[in-house]
Write a structure and sequence with these properties.
The chain is mostly helical. It has four helices and two strands. The chain has one domain. Strands 1-2 form a two-stranded antiparallel ribbon.
């Protein structure tokens, strides 16, 4: 059996490994049209990889939910089976995707506002006989 220190270092190694795959996920989803679709697949991948679950009833240690779901598909150990793992993954995905879209909308609105302010300032400079800066 693992000690709590081994478990902690295993969790740290797993999260660092997932973080190392994030640039590949971003690169792989780059060709998809439209930011909401890209964000959908990016957040789905992160939710799948980062959501934890208890592998067996009564265990105090967590495991990646995708691994727990795979073991439940191969050899079911509980009545609820894969459903008990898919619910936390779905919830994590919904929260991540909603937060991502909210931040995207805020940044999009902010950049559009900044762009409009710069355009108005440049137009005022031109009208006053000044030189517009780009």
């Amino acid at each position: 059996m693992y000690t709590p220190e081994n478990y902690l270092w295993g969790c740290i190694a797993y999260v660092l490994g997932v973080l190392m795959t994030v640039p590949f996920i971003w690169w792989a989803t780059r060709p998809l049209p439209g930011y909401p679709l890209r964000a959908f697949f990016r957040m789905l991948a992160l939710a799948l990889l980062l959501t934890p679950a208890f592998p067996y009833e009564g265990m105090t240690y967590l495991a990646p939910a995708w691994a727990t779901a795979a073991f439940e598909l191969i050899k079911p150990t509980m009545e609820h089976g894969v459903r008990r793992v898919l619910i936390p993954i779905g919830f994590s995905f919904a929260v991540l995707y909603a937060l991502n879209l909210c931040v995207w909308q805020l940044l999009k609105t902010r950049s559009a506002k900044d762009g409009a302010d710069i355009a108005c300032k440049d137009a005022n400079d031109v009208q006053e006989g000044g030189v517009a800066h780009s």
